[in-house]
Amino acid sequence: MARLDVNRSGEMEVFVRVVELGGFSAAARAFRMTPSAVSKLVGRLEARLAVRLLTRSTRQVQLTPEGCVFYERAVRVLADLDEAERGAATNDAPRGRLSVNVNVPFGEHFLLPLVPAFLALHPEVTLDIVLTDEVIDLLERRTDVAVRAGPLKSSQLLARKLGETRKLIVGSPAYLQQRGTPVTPADLAAHNRLGFTYARALEGWPLLQDRQVVPVALNGTAQVSDGESLRRLAVAGLGLARLAAFQVRDDIAAGRLVAVLEDFNPGDVEEVHAVFVGQGGHLPSRVRALLDFLVENVRIG
Description:
Layout: H1 8-21, H2 24-31, H3 35-49, E1 54-56, E2 61-63, H4 65-88, E3 96-102, H5 104-121, E4 125-131, H6 138-141, E5 145-149, E6 158-171, H7 173-179, E7 195-196, E8 205-209, E9 212-216, E10 223-224, H8 227-235, E11 241-244, H9 245-254, E12 258-260, E13 269-276, H10 285-297
Helix pairs in contact: 1-2, 1-3, 1-4, 2-3
């Protein structure tokens, strides 16, 4: 039988906030406690469980393997408590500020066009949207939802898949007329291959050569920080770019861009996910509302 003098749900909530806010001081401010009181509470929790949950340093705290397991289970328990309270409430309409960080192509092609419909459904929500291809730390930036393209790294974040897209190498008709249309990967040596200013998961463009996928290094005269800027440079005729199919389908249909080297396209796809902190019902209703809305309305393929 549980001891009545131990507020286990309160300990869990403080522990979860320490993890999600990145330290004792930030959690203390959230609960209007002193950092030492928060530290003692977590220490008491560890003593009761007879296991180390966090490793502490002067600048940050990190979860131990046991702490990761406890964190995930604690969030689920708190989610059940929140769900029970919501079930007894008469009004659980999504409300409040919702911070969203999305990559620029997704923002331009999907999120921004959907904003009016989302806010019409949830008029008490205020969206704070940042468009950037930089991968941010959600906890550090206090972001509720981020949209990321490509493989997800192992982390404490949860994710919901929004779709996937092929990648195409494209160039403008004017550029191809001037420089010639590449027929084989070897022809790329004579072309301006545009890229990004930040590191990508794969160095270069993957192309099929002798039944193997071989990356072709970039050598462009310009690099940019986001996919939409790269698309604009390609449309302007500066060089070739490798972009998500959804970014360029309208340009291809209108004749502004032409896909090249499709016979050597390995057919790899880039998955797009909405990532967030939390577990199941522990999400605020405004976050859950946006996730459900995106899954229902985004059509990337």
